[in-house]
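Field log, afternoon session.

UNIT: design team B
ACTIVITY: writing a sequence onto a fixed backbone
BACKBONE:
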């Protein structure tokens, strides 16, 4: 279960670039708080060009969005909501790292009961129904989500044996990472154009 959570985290927040950014400290020897990054940019420009995301996952996602916003001369800064995006990224983190899931294999799919502490339950109740709406766009399976006092219940079923096997292989966390709409969604959130709130 721990490995499955780790894999989902890596997929959501940058995959191998995340791991490389955590271990590659080229040009950061003796790096201290408040130290200017100008020397890193000059001496490490070739090596940093290989990396796609800097550091911790939520910071990397925010940094990537800020880079896109600053590069676009048409960005309406009066509508930008990076605080809202940060809150969403914290929800994503809670879903992946703090959620306790009991999965039941069904003949035609999967039933998952997800819970956790109060903050995790709140995150689940924001995230799972909204993400289930994205999953429901796939006509190969049927999605049902119920909110409970202790979290959420997710039921994903299908008729096709290959799709059933896929559902069971993905499990709760894989289903939450499926249908990769997250980057576009994060940019819309940052621009104040949240298409579905979670």
């Amino acid at each position: 279960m721990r490995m499955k959570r780790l894999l989902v985290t890596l997929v959501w927040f940058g995959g191998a670039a995340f791991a490389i950014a955590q271990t590659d400290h080229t040009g950061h020897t003796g790096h201290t708080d408040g130290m200017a990054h100008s020397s890193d940019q000059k001496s490490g420009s070739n090596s940093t060009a290989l990396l796609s995301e800097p550091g911790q996952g939520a910071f990397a996602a925010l940094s990537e969005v800020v880079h896109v916003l600053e590069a676009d001369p048409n960005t309406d800064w009066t509508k930008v909501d990076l605080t809202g995006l940060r809150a969403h990224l914290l929800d994503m983190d809670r879903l992946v790292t703090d959620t306790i899931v009991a999965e039941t294999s069904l003949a035609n799919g999967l039933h998952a009961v997800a819970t956790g502490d109060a903050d995790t339950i709140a995150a689940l109740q924001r995230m799972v129904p909204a993400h289930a709406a994205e999953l429901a766009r796939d006509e190969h399976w049927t999605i049902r989500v119920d909110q409970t006092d202790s979290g959420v219940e997710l039921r994903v079923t299908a008729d096709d044996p290959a799709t059933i096997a896929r559902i069971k292989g993905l499990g709760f966390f894989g289903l939450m990472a499926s249908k990769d709409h997250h980057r576009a969604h994060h940019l819309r959130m940052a621009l104040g154009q949240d298409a579905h709130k979670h």
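LOG NOTE: Residues 2-26+37-84 form one domain.
NEXT ACTIVITY: expression trials, pending approval
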